[in-house]
Amino acid sequence: MRRNVNKRRSAFTLMELLLVTGILAVLAAFAIPNLMNSGTKAKNNIALASVKGNGGIAKGLDQYKWDMGSYPDTDEGLAALYKKKGEVDDERFNGPYMTGAFEELLDPWQKPYEYRSPGEVNEDGYDLWSRGEDSKDDGGKEGSDDIKNWVEK
Description:
Strand order of the largest sheet: 1-2-3
Helix content: 25-40%
Number of strands: 3
CATH architecture: 2-Layer Sandwich
CATH topology: Glycoprotein, Type 4 Pilin
Radius of gyration: 28 Å
Largest sheet: 3 strands, antiparallel
Strand content: 5-15%
C-alpha cells in the first residue's frame, strides 16, 4: 500500500493560533495607549493653532487693531470681532472681522476662549488662551493644561 505523501494541510495548529494571538496582543499593547492620547493631542493642537499669532482669532484681532488703532479691550472682548458696521458708532470700524456667530467661537472642549487686553503677559498686545481639557483657569501656572498665546519665561 502506498500512502499519499502530498496531503494538503487544511487547518492551523493550536501552536500557530497561539503565536499569532500573542503577536496581536503585543501590538495592541503598544498601539492602544497611543490611540487613546491622539484625541487629546489633536484638540490641544487645534486650540494652539487658534490662539497663536497666525490663527483665525489673531488675524481678526490684528485687522481690528489695524482699523481701530488698538485691540478690543477686555470688556468688549472677542465679541467685538463679530459686530457689523452699523452696530459700532465709529467710522473706522469695518467689521465684522470674524465670520459666523460669536457664540460659536469655542475651544475644542466647547468652552469660550479667554481674552484680556491689554494683556498681563503680552503687555503691548493681548492675552488669549483656552482653559484646556480640565476647563480650569490655571492662570498660566507652569504645568497647567491651559493653551496660551504666550511663552512661559
